[in-house]
From TrEMBL, chain A:
Record-given protein name: ABC transporter ATP-binding protein
Gene Ontology molecular function: ATP binding; ATP hydrolysis activity
PANTHER family attached to this UniProt entry: ABC TRANSPORTER I FAMILY MEMBER 6, CHLOROPLASTIC
Compositional bias (Acidic residues): 132-151
Key words, A-Z: ATP-binding, Nucleotide-binding
Organism: Halocatena salina
Signal sequence residues: none
Region (Disordered): 132-164
From TrEMBL, chain B:
Gene Ontology annotations of biological process type: iron-sulfur cluster assembly
Chain positions covered by the region annotation Disordered: 1-31
Pfam families in the cross-refs: SUFBD_core (PF01458), SufBD_N (PF19295)
Annotated source species: Halocatena salina
UniProt domain SUF system FeS cluster assembly SufBD core: residue ranges: 213-447
SUPFAM superfamilies associated with the record: Stabilizer of iron transporter SufD
Protein name: Fe-S cluster assembly protein SufB
Domain SUF system FeS cluster assembly SufBD N-terminal positions: 139-210
Alphabetical list of PANTHER family matching this protein: FES CLUSTER ASSEMBLY PROTEIN SUF, UPF0051 PROTEIN ABCI8, CHLOROPLASTIC-RELATED
Family membership: Belongs to the iron-sulfur cluster assembly SufBD family.
Top-level division of the source organism's lineage: Archaea
């Protein structure tokens, strides 16, 4: 079990006089739960997602983002009591990834020349290695890690796997299985990361990456935008599998009710002006679809 | 024997003695460039008169020509002092012109190549490796089947002895005459070693022919000459790797490559070069492509303090094709000025230039290109694409694509992009678990992928490693 806890999160654009965007976000997502985060444009949904993942464009001015892990959260690593809670705001983006936080991007980067299969295997191995380092805190292992870095293990063109890494053949099998699950064409593996992908393919690719990297908590930023109905179903199948098979907690950011027909949320939250203004169950999303956001605003500010 | 010759012999002996003792070399010339030095080199190599005369003529041309100084954005060459350069060093190896067995090589040379993974490359695949250490080819292994087909692959000095007719016809005559530029003239005077490749008509050499050069002594010049002659409808892929370690004094590398691609022939010349940070890398590389011939240049330029290198193809026959793929990497204090030149001198000729550069920590890369389409070269086409990737705001990259189009019925395309490594791209990869350095390395590896995919895997891996090391700043 893992739990992501966002407490009183304030953030602004990371420049002098940068605009304040988050004004005290409170939110909790646990393994096995699906949360929908909705709200009008500019209310801070995407910023919340990026701040969770550690995007350098934002500066956190107050609050905490904690991840709580059970001692058996990761295979092969037993987590001692001291290491069960982390404030991930202190960590680099890759360290957050190693602790099981995944961000599915609305507009993923296109990286020419890097094949999907190379990228994903490198990422998975990097994550496993980072995870080991995070949970082995004595100086000795740090020295060892530095020694390791003197080699070329991280080269995308590396051949054989080092100890503790997933080798090429084993990884290809894993990738093949996951792609079949998502009904992705097998040529995908040899294509360059997101380069020339259609909008739908990019979204599918984000879900594929989550399936491979097995996050504890996946934040999916408008994963449903720009998808036709068939692709929406494929992507939704993938998201449900993340929860059902990998017991991930999902924070699904969306504008529309549409995807929630396929990925049924346990909780729905509405953001307004940089905070979570209202929370409820799946009925809340249906009500939004019918009535828009104005009534939320009225209700929230009248009672305030 | 005249007294002058006596004197020369004495100098010769002294040099041999002095050198053996201190640096374990068989023979080296004095610093600086005089007719005397040139005669010494020629004599040491037992060269025929015509070659010695060519050297001496080139030397005169060298002294007459000014240093290039006034190109826009040109690297600073004021430090290049020819008088401080030792133009010729022969390592102390018994077999002049190379040994056939790797194990016969002195241990230090084996070690050097070992560290660079060259025996691996040789074992793992390929065919012939000629490795040049300092100025001489020291190791050669040529597959018998090629010899049977009449293919010649040997070091250039040996070629002068054993294939004088071919060398006399092609060596710095029709392709790169010494009068071409100051450093071509210098090369013509002091050249030493290099490779000679001759492929007879209708012969395809399936496996790449490889040579590896390394400059190992302080303050020396390296002037290897590569001459490739591909007769009609033949095909060959020649690969060259070069490197030099770091010394305090500057080094000069001034090689020359001449390629003759006859009717319907196909030559690919690939090179991965990594020079030490004090090397001035000033080369002339040129190909002449006849009717329906194809010339391809693939090059990765790493290291050096300054590089000036513009591989050139003259599309002489109708239907000839030329492709250039180049990559340059400049770190702190480095100026890599490279590009391509193509002359379309016949109808229906085609060229493509794809140039990629990476600069970091104040490094400077220039793309300097020239595409000339002559009057009458109708239905020709050219496409130039240059992409520059920068790590920071201190680094610079300039694009200077000259186009001289004298014919109206042609198709010309040019595209240039300059960009910084994107924060969004780095963040995306980091969010997937890669740390900052690995993310940047992956982006760069992807950026240069068009080059690496053209190279045999060992060279591709080597190129990626070199770039990783450059990015970590751990290459001396």
């Amino acid at each position: 079990m893992a739990r992501l806890e966002i407490k009183n999160l304030h953030a602004k654009v990371n420049e002098d006089g940068g605009e304040k965007i988050l004004n005290g976000v409170d939110l909790e997502v646990a393994s096995g739960e699906i949360h929908a985060l909705m709200g009008p444009n500019g209310s801070g949904k995407s910023t919340t997602a990026k701040v969770i993942a550690g995007h350098p464009a934002y500066e956190v001015t107050d609050g905490e983002v904690l991840i709580h892990l059970d001692d058996d959260e990761f295979e092969d690593i037993e987590i001692t009591e001291d290491d069960q809670t982390w404030d991930i705001l202190d960590l680099e983006p890759n360290e957050r990834a190693a602790l099981g936080v995944f961000l599915g991007f609305q507009y993923p980067a296109e990286i020419e020349g890097v094949t999907m299969v190379n990228f994903l295997r490198t990422a998975l191995n990097a994550k496993l290695e980072e995870r080991e380092e995070l949970f082995e805190d004595d100086e000795e292992t740090e020295a060892e890690a530095e020694e390791d870095d003197a080699g070329y293990e991280t080269s995308p063109m590396e051949g054989e796997a080092d100890e503790g890494e997933i080798g090429v053949a084993e990884f290809q099998q894993l990738l093949k299985e996951k792609m079949e699950q998502l009904e992705m064409d097998e040529t995908f593996a040899q294509r360059y990361l997101n380069a020339g992908f259609s909008g739908g393919e990019k979204k599918q690719n984000e879900v594929l990456q989550a399936a491979i990297l097995e996050p504890s908590i996946a934040v999916l930023d408008e994963i449903d935008s720009g998808l036709d109905i068939d692709r929406l179903q494929d992507v939704s199948t993938g998201i449900n599998a993340l929860r059902d098979e990998q017991n991930a907690g999902i924070l699904q950011i969306t504008h529309y009710q549409r995807i929630l027909d396929y990925v049924e949320p346990d909780h729905v939250h509405i953001m307004l002006d940089g905070k979570v203004a209202m929370s409820g169950d799946s009925e809340l999303a249906v009500k939004l679809e019918e009535n828009g956001y104005d009534w939320v605003r009225e209700e929230v500010y009248e009672t305030a | 024997m005249s007294s002058e010759q006596d004197h020369l012999k004495e100098t010769d002996t002294e040099a041999r003695f002095g050198f053996k003792k201190e640096q374990n070399s068989a023979f080296e010339t004095e610093k600086g460039l005089t007719e005397e030095t040139i005669r010494l080199i020629s004599d040491d190599k037992d060269e025929p008169d015509w070659m010695r005369d060519r050297r001496l003529r080139a030397l005169r041309q060298f002294h007459e020509m000014p240093m290039p100084t006034d190109w826009p954005g040109q690297p600073d060459l004021t430090e290049v002092d020819i008088d401080e350069i030792v133009p010729y060093i022969r390592p102390d190896i018994d077999t002049r012109g190379g040994v056939d067995d790797w194990e016969e090589l002195p241990e230090e040379i084996q070690d050097t190549f070992d560290k660079l993974g060259i025996p691996e490359a040789e074992k793992n695949a390929l065919s012939g490796v000629g490795a040049q250490y300092e100025s001489e080819i020291v190791y050669q292994n040529m597959q018998e089947q090629w010899e049977e087909k009449g293919v010649i692959f040997c070091d250039m000095d040996k070629a002068v002895q054993e294939h004088p007719d071919l060398v006399e016809e092609y060596f710095m005559t029709k392709c790169v005459p010494p009068s071409d530029n100051k450093f071509a003239a210098l090369h013509g005077a002091v050249w030493s070693g290099g490779s000679f490749v001759y492929v007879p008509e209708n012969v395809t050499v399936e496996m790449p022919v490889q040579a590896y050069f390394r400059m190992n002594s302080e303050g020396m010049g390296q002037f290897e000459h590569t001459l490739i002659v591909a007769e009609e409808n033949s095909e060959v892929h020649y690969i060259e790797g070069c490197s030099a370690p770091q010394y305090s004094q500057f080094n000069l590398h001034s090689g020359c490559v001449e390629v003759f691609v006859k009717d319907g022939a196909h030559v690919q010349y690939s090179t991965v070069q990594n020079w030490s940070k004090n090397t001035y890398n000033l080369n002339t590389k040129r190909a002449i492509a006849e009717k329906d011939a194809t010339m391809e240049w693939v090059s990765g330029s790493m290291g050096s303090k300054a590089t000036m290198l513009y591989p050139c193809t003259i599309l002489k026959g109708p239907g000839a094709t030329d492709n250039h793929i180049t990559i340059a990497f400049a770190g702190e204090g480095q100026n890599i000025d490279t590009g391509a030149k193509v002359y379309h001198n016949a109808p229906n000729t085609k060229s493509t230039i794809e140039s990629k550069s990476i600069s970091k920590d104040g490094g400077r890369t220039n793309y300097r290109g020239l595409v000339h389409i002559a009057d009458g070269a109708e239905d020709s086409s050219t496409s130039v694409e240059c992409d520059a990737l920068m790590f920071d705001n201190e680094s610079t990259s300039d694009t200077m694509p000259y186009m001289e189009i004298e014919e109206s019925k042609v198709d010309v395309a040019h595209e240039a992009t300059v960009g910084k490594i994107g924060d969004e791209d780095v963040f995306y990869l980091q969010s997937r678990g890669l740390d900052d350095d690995d993310a940047k390395q992956m982006i760069v590896a992807g950026f240069i992928e068009p080059i690496t995919e053209e190279l045999p895997i060992e060279y591709a891996v080597e190129l990626n490693r070199l770039i990783e090391l450059e990015m970590e700043g751990s290459l001396g």
